[in-house]
Automatic annotation (TrEMBL):
Signal peptide: none annotated. Pfam families: Transketolase_N. It comes from Anaerobutyricum hallii. CDD domains: TPP_TK (cd02012). Gene3D superfamilies: 3.40.50.970. Residues 12-257 form the Transketolase N-terminal domain. SUPFAM superfamilies: Thiamin diphosphate-binding fold (THDP-binding) (SSF52518). This is Transketolase. InterPro entries: THDP-binding (IPR029061), Transketolase_N (IPR005474).
Length: 282
């Protein structure tokens, strides 16, 4: 059963990567690096871990997901579309004037988006506030947020980290997409926050480190949540920038991508081959 679950999640992640290609075709550009490094984890959240209902996106007892690194908006759009929050045809409007799919997620335009994000460093603060509110309301819901490793330089993250630990918010899970690169180059060269896990432990969080592009490790970590009673959980996910785009993997120059039609065709072909491989495993 577990093997089949993992296979299905890998297949779904490949479909979500194809949804990203669809948006790239529509706009001719996008933040491919962080989108593809985090897409396996976001897929597993929506299709394995979180208690959500696309037909009732405002259901009171739903779990919440916030994409703190809002410039990676294509990952959220791709997964929400695959989950059925909106018709996939809307993906073809990405990057267009008046599109519901803005460059950063907009909670007023698209069902399933819990907060308008993109000003880096605020997602963890918002998620902490949501987790506190849900606890006060005695709701069973959980809150999940994904941070970029580059945005850890924003001080608001650490205020939220302290508050979440102080209030013992074990209904909160934060994930750092630690691909090691940001638009200016290596994260450790721009502003070194390693070892990330140790810093959050010192703030009072329970921490695990995983390969964030390995679906087995992702599911194992999600199954263990919360890692400790009375503590917020932090997953330091070691990922590869632009994972799935062979020519761009591990390269800072693919933080943002302006692909040609031929580039999109080649990427789509690779992903379709992956999908056929997963189907052959049945």
């Amino acid at each position: 059963m577990r093997r089949e679950t993992i296979r299905c999640l890998k297949e779904t992640a490949a479909k979500c990567r194809l949804n990203v290609v669809r948006m790239l075709r529509a706009s001719g550009h996008g933040h491919i690096g962080g989108t593809y490094s985090s897409i396996d984890m976001v897929t597993a959240l929506y299709f394995y871990k979180m208690n959500v209902n696309p037909e009732k996106p405002d259901w009171e007892d739903r779990d919440r997901f916030l994409l703190s690194a809002g410039h990676k908006s294509m990952v959220q759009y791709a997964v929400l579309a695959e989950k059925g929050y909106f018709p996939k045809e809307i993906l073809d409007t990405y990057g267009h004037l008046h599109s519901k799919l803005a460059g950063h997620p907009n909670m007023h335009k698209l069902p399933g988006v819990e907060a308008s994000t993109g000003a880096l460093g605020h997602g963890l603060s918002i998620a902490t506030g949501m987790a506190m509110g849900l606890r006060l309301d005695k709701k069973p819901s959980k809150v999940y947020t994904i941070l970029g490793d580059g945005e850890l330089a924003e001080g608001s993250n650490w205020e939220a980290a302290a508050a979440a630990a102080h209030y013992k918010l074990d209904n909160l899970t934060a994930i750092v997409d630690f691909n090691g690169l940001q638009i200016s180059g290596k994260v450790t060269d721009v502003m070194d926050f390693t070892p990330i896990g140790d810093k959050f432990r010192e703030f009072g969080w329970a921490v695990r480190e995983i390969d964030g592009n390995n679906m087995d490790e992702i599911v194992e970590a999600f199954d263990a949540l919360p890692f400790e009673e009375g503590k917020p959980s932090m997953i330091v996910a070691h990922t590869v920038k632009a994972k799935g785009l062979k020519e761009g993997e591990g390269k800072a120059s693919y933080h943002y991508w302006n692909p040609s039609k031929e580039d999109c065709d080649a990427l789509e072909k690779d992903l379709m081959e992956q999908l056929r491989g997963y189907e052959d495993e049945i």
